[in-house]
Amino acid sequence: MSAANRPHWLVRWLVHVVTYAVALTMIAPFGWMVSTSLKTSQRAIDPNPSLLPDGPPTQWQWNHYVEAWDRAHLGDFYLNSIIVALVVTVLSVLFCAMAGFAFAKLRFAGRKITFAILLATLLLPYQVYFIFAYFICSWLGYIDQLHALIVPFLASAFGIFYMRQSIIAVPDSLLDAGRIDGFTDFELFVNIIVPTVRPALAALAIFTFMASWNNFFWPLIVIDSSDHITLPLAVERLSAGQFVDSWPQRMAAATIITVPTIFVFVLFQRSFVEGLALTGVKG
Amino acid sequence: MRRSYLIILIIAAATIACLIPPGVARRSKNELLFTVWGMPFEDNLFRDGYARDFEAQNPGVTVQYETYPDVTKKYFVWHLRGFGADVMRLPITDYHAMVSIGALEPLDRFINDPEIGMTVADQADFMPSLWDALEIGGKRYAIPSDNAQYGLYYNKTIFDQYNTEHPDDPLAYPDASWTWEDLKKAGEKLTIEDEDGEIVQYGVDFDLWAWPFMAFLAQAGGELWDEDQTTTLINSPEGLEALQFVVDLLPHAGPLRSADLKDSATGPDKFFVTGQTAILLDGSWRAPFLELINPDLDFAVAPLPHHRERAVVSGSVLWAISTHSHNKHLAWKMVKFITNFEQSLRYWDALRVAPPSRLSVVRDEAFRSTRGIIDERGVVRSPAMPRDRWEDRGQWLLYATTPDPATGRMPGFVPVTPYQKDLEDKIKTMLGRAVSPDRKQPLEDLLDSTAAELHRIIDRDRLARGEPAVRREEGKR
Amino acid sequence: MTGRSTRSGWAFVAFPLAVVFLFTALPTVAGVVLSFFVWNGSDAPSFIGLGNFQAAMTKDPQFWYALRNTLIFAAVTVPITTVLAFLFAVILNARWFVGRTAVRTMFFLPAVVSIIAVGYVWRWVLDPKAGLLNATLEWAHLDALFGGDLPAWLGDNPWGLGAMILVQIWRNLGFCVVLYLAALSQVPKSLHEAASVDGAGPWQSIWCVTWPCVRPMTAFLIITGSIWALQVFDLVWGIWGEAQMRWTDVLNAHLYREFTHLRLSYSATIGVCMLLLTAVVTIAQIRWMKRSEEADR
């Protein structure tokens, strides 16, 4: 919005207040989690809790983070999670963008019905069909390997649908101009579509990374050996058994594994700048 | 043109690299897959203790140790794909389900084997009601490892304080002589409210799951199931007594307490460990946790009170062998090893969460103290129980396996039936509704409707299996 | 659009579709087929036709509670989340907003925190006696709203359903805001400038220029949002646990509970019922959107 379009200063001030208030409620539970991780075990489970750990910051239980890292052997499994999440994110965003482009802008036989079938796969909850995907992975020899965590996620109906919606918004005139210049479809994709929908690609990258990083159920099912597990499974080991022996440690571990996703988010959200689209062509 | 072809090439190469599976080595004849669940420090016992010692005793054998947060689901999906572990730790609540899907190997041929089997005397060493309960259709599919019991934890400081303030009306510490009346009175006397009517000290408290109800039902002389184990009898007069007792013991539950808070942030055990509850009904596994979180808490444990009968509800953890195991003979040797006297004692000595189901271990002098587990950094993971703590915190465990002089029967019982899990889920919901102050339904109706809902689930299950519907009397719906 | 498109169109979708079909579509078909069978895991499955469905309709009161709760849940969360997300995305996209990156990250945090931590934290916040929510309400003297008695958010009452809706909006708002932010970034600056030249104020600019431009994203959020809301699971399971209550059970939790009892084919049946429900809702939404698009022309 240009300067002439700025709302009245009172409105701006109100909007800031409300938005910050909402943002605070968004992070309040997260803050609670971090605060718990810094309390002693006894204070953490006190049914009359306090907002912050006792005493000055130097007395807070920072050691829980070190202990959680050691006991859950997070260092061993960080690499597994990173490899899986990076490979899945890069390739999946790419393939979903390609398919989304085809569904949005290219005509091919059976496009409509294939897209309908694609959407239909979103309708059955995964808790029902995961077992059959498990069998398929078993036949392919992927069980207990990182392959089982990567291959099924190289493309997703959600991602394709999302990219299709984002690419539909790209003006056809841009593509026509490209065709006149003699681009093949793939060059259209690389040189025109990708730069234009970069914010959508960034958003999809964030979510794909996040989904892969936090995935708990599927690795639980397909990974048998403890060397191949990913971080969420490693963290869960801190609480298996007859009791949770340390809530703060569990919270510390949960905080640790959140950090990379936040990092990825901050990195990619720089693409969300208004007006990045090519201007100069009437839409 | 060049750049886009290069990109295509790179993508294709990366993708193909992801698609090719690596080869997988098969398990050899002398390798056992040993699966458990547990906290990291329990590796000390299962991996460094059981697994390594078995390997040492059987040269040439390797034991691959794996621990999973949710073993039952793992076993289930493995079984569906035709795979299984050799030695499996299994919660008893999933026993019937695992047997019905054919995942567990019948152990009778091993037990009765003259060379590697168990003698009759050896079999009798396991708690009889538990041993018998594991027989399904004449076959036995698992060996019990322990026998976790429901007990009465009490805060001695609160009792002492009460007796100081009321010298003319003293309260004795709870013990096996307590009746329902004693417990109710103690709860009333030990509850303290402030000016606003808010409770600052709870008299009696317990989590609302199936165990309190099942214990009280048995103490009233009632039964959970009929002989076929397909019709529930919780809506009998004894059931009503038991439910009424639960409601009487927790007058302030409902808005102040949500159901199913075991291991959650604000469960009854949290109030007990911070010294705000006088009496807590909980399982034997709670004791190490209390000591770990609040070593200064002066608490002791007593057996449950009795009513018409003496009864203690308990649970168990089992060891089983998968039908898909390739080394069943060797697996049996290991199961026999880890359930023998020394290893069972070791389980108690390390974890202290439940007494072993071997009666000889429970009655041994070595049972009366434990060393716990201390990890490499010197941090106590599982607290030890020195001998002088035995009377306060360990002796109560003998109650369940000591025959009652009046009847000759042991009070301890382990409910193991085909639809037990569904029943316990329903009981949990029922208790939550029973103690809620918004309840308008009389308790009899609540019991009847719970039983009816359970029967509908059972009928649905039988319908799905193609089994005939259950014929029930009109009154029992 | 030349005829060449036909071949290369397939070249673009071949591999992604193959992945989706192999790991999602084929298993989905298998799952649907399973609901007509009974399979105990070791013997061959036996065909019982509509037997499972009949059982679900007539012998499973929990199914109907779960269905009711799921419908209410979806009907309330989807519109609220979509509208709020759009508004906040516009705000966080504005040049004049101070601290955009920080606030965006704060909005995004709930979506990123693992469900274990979410369950733990929210169980504490919602606890009737010791929880943050009731403590705050009391401190703000809002307990009069509830007739003096603060509700038991974790109990088996409609307030529990309300708490579920609250937590869902908390968790998903950031997610939807990010998607809208991406879509807003693609709105050409020239359109806004043209509008302001025509004399449009900021609110008119939003309503007449921004909102129609992000229509594909709105459609996406409503359709997928409804599907996810109808399929909500880990939030409910993590906070309300395995308890079978009347007001806080949802279809997917009921399904998963049946799976933990190792009743595989019955959980497939519930899944197929969910599929039918979701299909009806999605088709109705697509039809309605097409109609409103045509009306605008």
Structure description:
The complex is a heterotrimer of chains A (283), B (477) and C (297). Chain A starts with 8 loop residues before the first helix and ends in a 15-residue tail after the last helix. Chain A is built from 14 helices and no strands. The radius of gyration of chain A is 24 Å and the shape is globular. By secondary structure, chain B is α/β, with parallel strands linked by helices. Chain B has two domains: 221 residues, D-Maltodextrin-Binding Protein, domain 2; 241 residues, Periplasmic binding protein-like II (D-Maltodextrin-Binding Protein, domain 2). In chain B, 40% of the residues lie in helices and 14% in strands. Chain B has 19 helices and 16 strands. In chain B, strands 7, 8, 9, 10, 11, 12 and 16 form a seven-stranded mixed sheet that branches. In chain B, helix 10 packs across helix 11 and helix 18 packs antiparallel against helix 19. By secondary structure, chain C is mainly alpha-helical. Chain C is globular. In chain C, 74% of the residues lie in helices and 1% in strands. Chain C contains 13 helices and two strands, in the order αββαααααααααααα. In chain C, strands 1-2 form a two-stranded antiparallel ribbon. Chains A and C meet through helix 1, helix 4, helix 5, helix 6 and helix 8 of A and helix 1, helix 3, helix 4, helix 5 and helix 7 of C.
Give keywords.
heterotrimer; A: 283 residues; mainly alpha; MetI-like fold; 14 helices; disordered C terminus; C: 297 residues; 13 helices; 2 strands
